[in-house]
Amino acid sequence: MTHGLNPVPKDRLRDLLNLEAGKLGFDALAVASPDATPLASARLAEYVAKGRHGSMEWLAETLERRGDPRSLWPEVRSVIMLGMNYGPDENPLDLLQHKDRAAISVYARHRDYHDVIKGRLKELAQKFAARSGADVKVFVDTAPVMEKPLAEAAGIGWQGKHTNLVSREFGSWLFLGSIFTTAELAPDEAESDHCGSCRACLDICPTDAFPAPYQLDARRCISYLTIENKGPIPREFRAAIGNRIYGCDDCLAACPWNKFARSASEAKLVARADLREPKIGDLLALDDTAFRALFSGSPVKRIGRDRFIRNVLIAAGNSNDPSLEPGVGALLGDPSPVVRGAAIWALSKLVEADALRRMIANLPQDEDDDVALERDAALAELAGDHS
Description:
Blueprint lengths: L12 H11 L4 E5 L7 H10 L7 H5 L1 H4 L2 H4 L5 E8 L17 E2 L8 H20 L3 E4 L7 H8 L3 E2 L5 E2 L7 E8 L18 H4 L18 H7 L6 H7 L2 E3 L3 H4 L26 H5 L3 H7 L9 H14 L7 H5 L7 H14 L2 H9 L7 H18 L1
Parallel strand pairs: 3-8
Antiparallel strand pairs: 1-2, 2-7, 4-7, 5-6
Helix pairs in contact: 1-6, 14-16, 16-18
């Protein structure tokens, strides 16, 4: 879109951006040139070639477009990168010790950031277009834009060893968005890497998802396993997931640069009270209607009730809380195979061997292969314990 009302001199456009961005709640703004990330394309191609993207096929499908902003929009001359702080007001790692409670990633405990940021970006872009006469396009996360390398090139932060953006001012707690424009804006200086010899984010990962510093294997990442992965969670990772039912904050929360961070000031990015530490037992009882009601406006809603309950069942199995047995047992007959399979596993961790053996014996033959595998695995464990 192009607007030419009340034009602002070119040397004042940056002042306009900073002023309006601040009014809209953005905490960081910087500019990169479209050609500022020449290595990003090759790194992404290597990531996909090694299969580390797992089932996220859209990364492979949009590989060429992600490599260079100009392949997405040839007319772009400047990329305005913006950040919004979503820092928590408490250490999210503390909740991991309370096994009867469910840990939802900090970014998902409030209004979906896509909705919050995209609306603000559009408003800022419209104001900028109206005063500059330039064309603009707005992108937030779901578009094929490599936001973290661009934010590093613009100087907002640097990609840390956990592959996420780290800011000296906001730690690891920044949501990113971008405005592409045909306006010629002076780019900012890129941020340098300040991780040094620190390995805090790598060493804390429960599933060893980092094959090397600055490299992530999504297939081992709890965020991927609980959000993107549609099938059963691989058995090798279940115990390590603990009570994390949606995403994982460990590598973010461990970053020493968070000591300079502050909690989010944007009201829509402050954690909802009912999502801070919900009880696992309460979540097990959610049907589709209740799930949708509880997570209305939250990014959690996007994975759907079945995947969510699968995650809650893994947490139940890790809880060592036998009082959860009735809620878990009720899900053995759930319409969703991924829920039924996870319920078998959770029961195998909560009940005595004889009780489990009776429960499994009373189950009807399941036509779903994954559920049958869960049943066989539980029986095999029982046989091993008996021997």
